[in-house]
# Entry
Amino acid sequence: MADNFLAYRSDPPVVPVWLNKGDNAWQLTCATLVGLQSMPGLVVLYGSIVKKKWAVNSAFMALYAFASSLIVWVLLAYNMAFGERLLPFWGKAGPALGQTYLIKRARMPASAHYYHNGTVETHMNEPFYPQATLVIFEFMYAAITLILLAGSVLGRMNIKAWMAFSPLWLLLSYTVGAFSLWGGGFLYQWGVIDYSGGYVIHLSSGVAGFTAAYWVGPRLKCDRDRFSPNNILLMITGAGLLWLGWSGFNGGAPYAANITASVAVLNTHICTATSLLAWTCLDVIFFGKPSVIGAVQGMMTGLVCITPGAGLVHAWAAILMGLFSGSVPWFTMMILHKKWSLLQKVDDTLAVFHTHAVAGLLGGVLTGFLALPELSSFDLPISGEKGVFYGGGLVQIFKQLIGALFVILWNIIATTAILLSVGLFIPLRMPDNELMIGDDAAHGEEAYALWGDGEKFDATRHETIVHNGAASSDVTVQQQLSNLGARGVTIQL
# Structure
C-alpha cells in the first residue's frame, strides 16, 4: 500500500527540497494550454479558414511544424535559446535529453544581471521545478511561433519546401530572438521589455511570414480573389481554443504560480474582449454589418497586443491596449493595405503581418508607456524599470523600438537566407497546375467527401442511377440528372 504513495514522499530524490509542487503543476498546465493552442487550435483554425481545396494542406503544415520543431528543440535549439551564452544574441547549442540534466532544478544560466561594478543585481532565474518542465514549456512557445508563420504562406507553398524550411527557421531565427530577449542576451540585459512574446513570438512570426510570402510568391489569382473559409463554425472553434489557451500563454510567463500570473491572465482576457468589440464596431461602422472573420482577427490582435505587457500593466491599461489593438491593425489591414503597393504585392494569406507583426510591435511600445513599477519589480531583471507614464522616461520607448528593430532585421535576413538555400534544392511554390487542384495534388487526400470547388455532379461516376424505380442503361446522363433534380447544380466550397 505504501508503494502507491512514493510520489508523495517528502524526502529526496522523488521530491527534492527545491521542488514547489504548485509551481510545477501550474507550469505543466500552462505548457499543455499553449500546446492546445497549436494542437488542435491552429490546426483546426487553418484547416477551416481556407478554401476547401486547401484544408488538408493547411492543417498538415501546422501538424508537421509542431512535430519537427520538438525534435530540433531537444537536440539543439533549447540551449541555443536558454543555455550558456555563446554570443550576445545566441546561446551554446546542445541537447536537452539526458535524464541527469532534466531532473535537476531548472535554470537559465545567462539570465543573471549585474551592476556596472560587476556585482549581482538579479540572480540567475531558477524556477522551483525540474529542467524538463521548463524545456517542454518553452518548446510550446517555439512551436506556436512557427505555426503562426505558416499562416502567411498557406495555399501555395510546396509542402516539401515547408518540411525543410520549418526546422531550419526554428534553429536559426527563433532561437536568436528568444535568447536575446528572454535567455539572458543583450536585449534582456539592456532592459527591453517583452513579458511573454510580443517580440519573440508575434513580431518574429509576422515579419518572417511576410518575408516568406514574398519569396514563395502569391497564390493563384482566382484564390486571391475568392478565398472564403470552408467552415466558419470550425474556424470559431479553433479561435476559441486559441483564446482560452492564452491563459497558459501569458499565465506561464513568470515561471511560477504567483501574483504576476494572476494579473496576466485577467489582463489577457480583458484586452482580447475589448479588441474584438472594437474591431467589430469598426466593421459595422464602415461596412454596415459585423464580420465573424473580422471578430476573430480582432480577437487575435488583442491577444497579441497584450502579450508583451500582460503581467506588467493595470487592468484599465489592458482596456486601453485593447482599443488600440482593435483599431490600429484594423486600419493597416483595411485602409493602409489598399494604398501601399508592397502590401498588395506580397500575398500574406491570413494577414499575419497585420495581426501579429503590427499588433506585437504596438503592444511592445504601449508596454513601454504603461508598465507599472510595482509589477515590473516582480518580473523584470533590472530594478527600477517602469513605463513612461510612471516616470520611466522616453529611454524605455527607445529601448522598445531598438529591440523591435533587431527582431525585424534578423527575421528578414535569416528567413531570406533559409528560403533561398532551400529553394536551390526544392521549389518553394507549387506549380500552377497543382495549385488549381490543391490538397489532392499535394497529398492525394481531400478534406470532405463532397463535390469540390466548381465541380459538377457526375452521374457516370455512379454504378447505377434509379430511373422510374429501376436501373436503366438506355437513358442519357442528362435525363438521369433531370430525374434527380440535379440540373447543372454546382456546389461552391
The longest helix spans residues 21-49. Residues 89 and 180 are 5 Å apart (CA to CA). The chain has 20 helices and six strands. The first strand starts at residue 85 and ends at 87.
